[in-house]
Amino acid sequence: MTQDLAAGAGTVEPDPRRPRRRAKLGTTVVEQLVDDIVRGVLSPGTTLRPEIDLCDEFGVSRTVIRESVKVVQEKGLVRIEHGRGTTVNEPRHWNLLDGVVLTAVIAHDDNATFLDELVAVRTALEAEMAGRASHTRTDDDLLRIAAELDLMRANLYRTPDFAAADVRFHDMIMAASGNRLGRTIVNSIHDKARTSMRYHGEYNEAVMRQTLDEHEAVRAAIEAGDAAAAAAAMRAHILGSWQRRRPT
Fold it and tell me: pLDDT tens digits, residue range 160-187?
């Protein structure tokens, strides 16, 4: 009996009376409100409809609506003013590093200008980290970077595996730089951007072989300890790759 109790210690059975769907319903409401704001259905200065109307629209309780609107406020898209309602904010207030906001902005970036900005930020950060990695990398770092490059070569005709190794190659360089914040920012924006076909484009043999050559130039500069060359090679690779696949 004592053993049974000990084994069960720390395990809390869910309360069957507790509503299980609220979090999921709230997520749906948040994503829809964010999407409506980003694509301009709800323009800056617009006041959200009353809670009771939103309840009818989404088929959820007032509690779910209230909690969802607070989440949208935390993302910077609206401001809640007691007695005046909830008003949509100008885009300059939006938290563009938030996953839901970033996904919506990318989805509705019809002329690719936001993707241009994203690539510019990624280029600046990754070029700096490649340069730093040329001085901070260890022998193990070099082995990990080379291993991903070898996997890319081995998967030249298997696009998903090639693409996965491509992402890990960049991540190994960022890890070697020791810049944790830069790595987190790049991985965050890159992960969301890669869900858009308009960002990652299509792979073909010529593109993959050029990518291999450009990656090898980055790897060689890092191994040689040449910070300027490593940064320049990374910058040329990211910008060149984007110009080749950028939607017109």
Answer: 999 999 999 999 999 999 999 999 999 9
The residues, ordered by sequence, that sit 6+ positions from 187 with a Cβ below 8 Å of its Cβ are 171, 174
Tokens of 234: 């990374």
90 and 136 in a single domain? The answer is no
Q: Tell me the residue range of the domain where 35 lies.
A: 20-99
Give the whole-angstrom CA distance, residue 35 versus residue 18: 29
> Has this prediction a pTM greater than 0.70?
yes
H or E, element range at 94: none
